[in-house]
UniProtKB/TrEMBL annotation:
Keyword Transmembrane: yes
Domain of life: Bacteria
Name of the protein described by the UniProt record: Membrane protein
Pfam families cross-referenced by the UniProt entry: EamA
InterPro entries: EamA_dom, EmrE-like
Alphabetized UniProt keyword annotations: Membrane, Transmembrane, Transmembrane helix
One Gene Ontology cellular component: membrane
Transmembrane segments: 31-53, 65-87, 93-115, 122-138, 144-167, 179-202, 208-226, 238-257, 263-281
Length: 294
């Protein structure tokens, strides 16, 4: 695969991911756990088909091969998926997606604490800057009564970080089987908690279609494109290209639904985006310098 093709696939993935907030806004009745159940139900067939296509028709073997690492990563995705759905329902799309982008910084800190991975000085500086941006957004969320949505967004970012940490701990090169486990766990958790809390498990057909489409097309479709494109793109560049999701998500709901956000969210999000870009560009520069040092 050529580099340009990989870039196009990753950018298309970001576009698909960016419409999730818009799709969530179309759901009228279903609660967080009901949406989690149906979105996960939409994810699983697509993931299993992709796994089978890459492994000569085998599905069980690749999923079993991820072992306990995949199970732990899948449990992290339950937090990530449920937190994201609740955040998108409880606060503005802009605030939610900006806070989601803090995940790489959680991953850096957790990797240092649990795996003993070194953290570059630039990354520590970017983390400090990210904390400032998060603080600005959380303060506005508190003032607007959307604190629960802010917390859920940060829990989602933490869940993705736990998923990443599990993959690094187990040195898994292929994340898709672990994502399939996360979809299965999320479907079970969504059904169980929805029933336990009195949420209807079978909402109107329109809600089901939006949730299933969000899982099968927006979330997993983007993940498949991202996985394919990532084979020819350095990790730091992937981080930069994936920011298209963060930039587009608020635009869709503004253009199509008139949803706006506060100045605190925009300023905080801008600071957080600068932190992400500084960290990614630093990583890219370090990677380009490494061959010259060998």
């Amino acid at each position: 695969m050529k580099y340009g093709t990989g870039v196009a696939l990753v950018l298309m993935a970001g576009v698909l991911w960016s419409v999730q907030g818009l799709l969530i806004r179309q759901i009228d009745v279903a609660g967080t756990w009901t949406v989690l159940f149906w979105r996960s139900l939409g994810m699983i067939p697509v993931l299993l088909t992709f796994i089978a296509a890459r492994s000569g028709g085998r599905v069980i073997g690749p999923i079993r091969s991820v072992g306990m690492v995949g199970v732990l990563g899948g449990l992290g995705l339950v937090l990530a998926f449920s937190g994201a759905i609740y955040a998108l329902q409880a606060t503005t799309v802009a605030m939610a997606v900006f806070l989601f982008s803090a995940s790489p910084f959680f991953s850096a800190v957790l990797g240092r604490v649990f795996l003993g991975e070194s953290v570059r000085g630039t990354t520590w500086g970017a983390i400090a800057l990210a904390v400032v941006g998060i603080g600005l957004m959380v303060r506005e969320g508190f003032a607007l009564g959307a604190m629960a949505g802010n917390i859920a967004a940060l829990i989602s970012a933490l869940g993705f970080s736990l998923f990443t940490l599990a993959l690094r701990w187990g040195k898994l090169a292929d994340m898709i089987p672990a994502v399939a486990l996360g979809g299965m766990f999320s479907m079970v958790a969504g059904a169980a908690i929805a029933l336990a809390t009195g949420q209807m498990l079978v909402p109107p057909v329109s809600d089901i279609l939006y949730a299933v489409g969000m899982g099968a097309i927006s979330l997993v479709g983007g993940m498949v494109l991202y996985t394919l494109g990532s084979r020819v793109i350095p990790a730091a560049e992937l981080t930069l290209f994936s920011l298209i999701e963060v930039m587009l998500a608020p635009i869709w709901v503004w253009l199509l639904m008139g949803e706006t956000t506060g100045a605190g969210t925009l300023w905080g999000g801008a600071v957080l985006m600068v932190a992400v870009m500084i960290n990614a560009l630093s990583g890219l520069r370090l990677r380009r310098m490494m061959p010259a040092q060998v």
